[in-house]
Amino acid sequence: MPIRVAIFDDSKDRRESLRYLIGMFEDLKCVGAFEDARDAVERVRAAKPDVVLMDIEMPYVNGIEGTRALKAEFPQLSVIMQTVFEDDESLFLSIKAGATGYILKRDEPIKTIEAVCDAVAGGATINSSMAMRVLRYFSAEEVYRPHLTAEYGITPREREILSMLVDGLSYKMIAERCGLSIHTVNSHIRKIYDKLHVHSMSEAVSKALKERLV
User: Fold this and answer.
1) Model pTM score
2) Phi, psi of 200 (to 5 degrees)
3) What dihedral do alpha carbons 129, 135, 140, 146 form, nearest 10°?
4) What number does CATH give the domain 146-210?
5) Mean pLDDT of the chain
6) What is the pLDDT of residues 36-76, one digit of tens each?
7) CB-hemisphere CA count at 13 Å for 118?
């Protein structure tokens, strides 16, 4: 039986390129190619792939959110992230979302095929430069530095909400999980921005990861 692969990528050229690449191998089969991760669970349920190739930056629902939804519904599904960005934030958020592998779009096409095969065999593929970032991150003696959250004046509730932002949860999801209104969540997040001296969610998440605030 061929390995069944589904593609999520907002670039039509990229989708067609991956479809063509997969079609070159008799033991692989493309079972779906989608332009974004909306209805990802329903699409995967219908296509029944063994492996998903997931772009990170997509409109409406990005790849990290899509991966989180897929892993919640299909824990055994292998999801390989593909991106043009070589940054810590995307890497760590992808890992936390449950990604099986992480490769860069500029990597040689054969790396994609190898990643698919490795995933089915129970392995995990990650670009070598990104692997070093993971090792450096987890080799640090301190994973969470509570003294820094105190220095920033972040309260336990704000740290809880910041942690959920790092996990990629939306305002609505945070509100539901914490039993708060969206207005209250928004108020907490504005205070977090002020205390961290940042102006956006991406900046807050990046700072939280770099300084290990959560």
Assistant:
1) 0.66
2) -155, 165
3) 90
4) 1.10.10.10
5) 85
6) 999 999 999 999 999 999 999 898 989 999 999 999 999 99
7) 17
With beta carbons less than 8 A apart as the criterion, state whether 208 and 142 touch. no
Chain length of the chain:
214
CATH 1.10.10.10 residue spans of the chain: 146-210
Amino acid, res. 161: I
Buried b (16+ CB within 10 A) or exposed e, 66-90: bbbbbbeebeebbbbbbbeeeebbb
Fill in the DSSP letter of residue 126. Answer: B
pLDDT at 186 over 80: yes
Cα four-point dihedral sign 203, 207, 213, 214:
positive
The structure tokens listed for 36 are 């974004």
The CATH T-level fold of domain 3-138 is: Rossmann fold (3.40.50)
**Alpha-carbon torsion 144, 90, 111, 71, what sign?**
positive
